[in-house]
């Protein structure tokens, strides 16, 4: 039987996917990747929102370097090795439901690539972010060149990769790597609050935000506007009308201006 290196739990409409390899700082081996992939697909079938978190003091130390060394040293010629990463992470980024990554400690290398596949990242004060690939003589391979570059911009990603610079949670928030920074040990609790809030949205709107919005920058201005028109029509359902009607009939509370420093959903 496969070791449970990734746990899966369904809490109401929220799927909790936990990296369960704290003794190796949640380093991501082939088996871990496969278990992430299976858990993510299952979440897409039965949950409205998914949360990915790491057990222990670190979210993830990235690629399993021991396995990488072993594979390399075995001398058997291998086809391109990053496909399993793409197969596991792409269904997070562009699957049917939104994902939140709840972070603490190291979020480095492939760990950061995993976090970047999620739609929202919540960091606690212990979280630090890094891309030490170049110091290990390798390159990103979990979609990081596509996703992290978009979050940060080339200049910052280039700096992190060339110099090995590590970012604190606060620095990461400033450069779009994290959307929330919470007190120590609170990232999972915060992710659950956010997930509960997101689960109340119309599923079609969530899908449009997670799958339509990120594709639009790949289009020309004109095609983007056309694509937006199609998505807007797609989300305009009976459910959307019921939600609009509920507001007009005062069956739901109006929006309230946020209080400074309070970002509670
Ligand atoms: C590992 C890994 C790993 C720890 N693969 N085994 N990633 C890195 O370059 C980060 C490497 N890791 C670290 O810098 C540190 O381990 C941490 C900062 C994450 C945590 O430090 P610490 O002091 O809590 O733990 P530790 O003592 O360094 O490690 C504990 C154990 O985890 C130890 O094994 P042990 O058998 O000696 O107990 C470590 O060997 C093991 N461990 N990290 C395998 N990454 C798709 S391409 C992506 C490319 C990348 O991800 S490159 C970045 C790789």
Outline the structure in words.
With 265 residues, the protein is an alpha/beta fold. It has 11 helices and 9 strands. The protein has helices at 30-46, 65-74, 83-93, 110-117, 144-152, 154-163, 169-174, 187-199, 203-212, 221-235, 238-248; strands spanning 6-11, 14-19, 49-54, 99-103, 106-108, 120-124, 128-130, 167-168, 180-182. The strands form 2 sheets. It has a 6-stranded mixed β-sheet with strand order 1-2-3-4-6-9, with helices on both faces. Strands 5-7-8 form a 3-stranded mixed β-sheet. Helix 3 (83-93) packs parallel to helix 4 and helix 4 crosses helix 5 (144-152). The longest helix has 17 residues, at 30-46. The structure holds 3-methylmercaptopropionate-CoA (MMPA-CoA) (1HE). 3-methylmercaptopropionate-CoA (MMPA-CoA) (1HE) binds next to helix 2 and strand 5.
- In order across it, which strands form the biggest sheet? 1-2-3-4-6-9
Bound molecules: 3-methylmercaptopropionate-CoA (MMPA-CoA)
What is the rounded Rg?
Answer: 19 Å
Oligomer classification = single chain
Based on secondary structure, the structural category is: alpha/beta
The amount of helix comes to 40-55%
Give the topology string: H per helix, E per strand. EEHEHHEEHEEHHEHEHHHH
First-residue to last-residue Cα separation: 40 Å
Mass-distribution shape: globular
Mean pLDDT, to the nearest integer, reads 94
Largest sheet: 6 strands, mixed
Percentage of residues in strands = 5-15%
Low-confidence stretches: none
Number of alpha- plus pi-helical segments? 11
Strand segment count? 9
């Amino acid at each position: 039987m496969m070791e449970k290196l990734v746990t899966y739990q369904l809490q109401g409409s929220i799927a909790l996917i936990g990296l369960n390899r704290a003794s190796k700082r949640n380093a991501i081996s082939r088996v871990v990747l496969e278990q992430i992939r299976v858990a993510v697909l299952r979440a897409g079938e039965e949950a409205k929102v998914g949360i990915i978190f790491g057990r222990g003091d670190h979210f993830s130390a990235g690629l399993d370097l021991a396995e990488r060394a072993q594979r390399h040293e075995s001398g058997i010629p291998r086809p391109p090795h990053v496909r399993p990463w793409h197969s596991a992470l792409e269904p997070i980024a562009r699957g049917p439901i939104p994902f939140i990554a709840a972070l603490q400690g190291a979020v480095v290398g492939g760990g950061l690539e995993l976090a970047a596949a999620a739609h929202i990242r919540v960091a606690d004060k212990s979280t630090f972010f890094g891309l030490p690939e170049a110091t290990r003589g390798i390159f990103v391979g979990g979609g990081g060149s596509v996703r992290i570059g978009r979050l940060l911009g080339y200049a910052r990603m280039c700096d992190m990769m060339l110099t090995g610079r590590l970012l604190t949670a606060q620095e990461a928030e400033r450069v779009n790597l994290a959307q929330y920074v919470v007190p120590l040990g609170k990232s999972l609790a915060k992710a659950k609050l956010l997930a509960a809030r997101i689960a109340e949205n119309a599923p079609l709107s969530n899908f449009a935000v997670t799958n339509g919005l990120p594709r639009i920058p790949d289009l020309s201005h004109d095609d983007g506007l056309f694509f937006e028109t199609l998505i807007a029509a797609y989300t305009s359902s009976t459910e959307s009308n019921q939600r609009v009607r509920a507001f007009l009939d005062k069956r739901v509370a109006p929006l309230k201006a946020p209080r400074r420093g309070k970002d509670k959903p």
